[in-house]
Amino acid sequence: MASPFDIEEIYPDDGEHSLRLPRRQAGNSPQGVAVTLLADYTVRTRAALPSAAIVALLAESGVTTAGARTAISRLSRRGVLEGSRHGRRSSYRLSRAAAANLSAGAQWILTSTAATTSWDGCWTTVAFSLPQDRSAQRRALRGQLRWLGYAPLYDGLWISPYELTSPARELLGQLAAGRVTVFRGRQSALDTTSQRAPIEAWDIDAISGHYEVFLRRWTPLVPLVRSGRVDGAAAVRARTEVMDTFRRFPILDPRLPLELLPARWPRQPARELFAAVYDGLAEPAERHVRAVVARFIDSGEPGVRAHTTTDLVTGVRGDESPGEGCRDGAAG
């Protein structure tokens, strides 16, 4: 099954050029919004929601009916969603693989943006060389390196401040068998001003700028959330947007060592702000999603369950039963 999220949602396919920052900070893709919505309210239960309910919820986030139906169809073809029919009605739920992927991904997002682990001052470098006629293989390798938190210091030389795990090492070996080499060590200082520091593989100013955009966008909402003045569709829309935006930060800023970053690095303030909005809107958003889904089912409990950042860190495994909800179009 394809990952519910593509690396291109965060980094555009830039060919042989140096890595660029996200092409989207707002106006997220219909597929991304659909996956975030379903994950936020059904990843525990894997409840099947009527397609009309999914379309209605996406419409509240500005997705057209045609765009919503196209997103659902594409996610189904990718194995992210499973479809079923009952009479004339169709319903969709997260596939088991997608639910597990999203649960692990959500846990990774929260743990990756927590306090930075201690750094030993060493760098892991991944060097590879692939012929021009293996562009698909090269693109897949770059994509995996990005997900693993690496950045290109030079063409064909990617770095990270942290150890390459055994599963990641095995994966990279499969993607570029016989054409990849991994080293770990300290940088040797050169007696020249032309030396490039490894941290320069990341555009620190641009990453900081994205954090600042996030902080400016969401900080004014916190008093309204705490006073209960964000409800209904607005609560769902804000919660979806804040998750869909925040989940990009672990790729942009993969636990970069604080000692290499400017003072008052905004990673922790952004995480605290995300938790304040996401957790604070969990109850009103769940109520609204339940109400929307209830309009499209005859009876039964819809299997809608919101979760908090604490739940995500613990791990939302999708072990709960969806019960008999969405009986009118439940997946078989």
Automatic annotation (TrEMBL):
- Which Gene3D superfamilies would you find in this protein's record? 1.20.58.1460, 3.30.70.2650, Winged helix-like DNA-binding domain superfamily/Winged helix DNA-binding domain
- Residue ranges occupied by any Transcriptional repressor PaaX-like N-terminal domain in the UniProt entry: 31-96
Q: Which domain of life is it from?
A: Bacteria
Domain (Transcriptional repressor PaaX-like C-terminal): residue spans on this chain = 202-290
Biological processes annotated in GO: DNA-templated transcription
**Where's the Transcriptional repressor PaaX-like central Cas2-like domain?**
117-194
Coiled-coil positions are: none
Mind telling me what this protein is named?
PaaX family transcriptional regulator
Originating organism: Micromonospora orduensis
